[in-house]
Amino acid sequence: MGKQGNNSFMGHIRPRQIMTGALRLRATFCLGGFSFLAFLVLTITGVLLLFFYQPGVEAFVSLSELNSVLPYGGVIRSLHFWAAQMMVISVFLHMVRVVWSKAYRPLRELNWITGVVLFVLTVILDYSGYLLRGGQESGAAATIGQALFTSLPGGQALATIFFGQPSSFNGSTLNMYAWHVFILPGVLGFLQMFHFWRIRRDGGVRPL
Amino acid sequence: MVLLKGVDLLTTEQTLYSRRQVLSLGRKTLLVLGLGCLYPVSRYLRAKENQLAKARVASHEMPLNLHWQRIGQTRFWLRQGDEGVEGMWATCTHLGCEVSYDPEQVQWLCPCHGSRFNQEGQPLEGPAVSPLARAEVREKEGFYLASQKM
Fold it and tell me: Closest Cα of chain A to B129: distance in Å?
């Protein structure tokens, strides 16, 4: 165990005392906790899907086989899909709760901003997962996303970074794959830890 | 409550279970669930995805004619051709959905994006542009042995 000083991460995650008001279920409904649970399920099932998913032109075929041929493949894929939908919903409800209980006000405004970034990242991850299926609908969704990007100033460059250059070589899911399985979840996981640490620093809820 | 004797309780309410007991039960449940996942996960990881498909059916169970017929629960379809038994691997060449043969239209239809193929598997319309893949069929000791080609 690392240093347990007043500012250390562990010292805040497992504090000696907390405020009694934060103990009530109605104070939070544990919606942030549900979101983190969904994130854990997504991480585990996502790693399992990595073993068989192939980005690029093979994407749709590999998922079709994963669903119908591999033992428990369909279960793992469905868990990944539904956990993703639950995470978007619970993160949204979590934000509604924070606004409702006015928890975004100083001193906690930094954590509110972090939370907004986390929400945006969650939605982008959900969207990029939809594109990774490589089906016809994914192509339509990617077209809309690219149009949204290019409407921004300097958006053409952004769109190329995020979506990649469509070619017969990568079937245009290769860039999205890098974002979806590595970059975005990495940033999300790091920001989540920061988010939890700030909750405790700002006098928030107890550990389970 | 023997367990709570001597503990300075914050409330005077009698509780059935202590917080510690509930959490320990939760931890044990997680452990059991985790162990229960080991078998499915190992089955999943040990699966050989890239193995080519194979199937066999007794020839007396499947009298062949000029129309394609499916070997149940597989993607193999067989018919009586001019030079013996022919096999088809019923996977759309667009995005890999399972196609099925409609004897009334004498066409292969893809349910996903509407590709159509003629009886020989040549593309007629829809997003698919290459013909359906044939399967290898051998007749051996009263069985049809079908196998997917590379």
Answer: 15
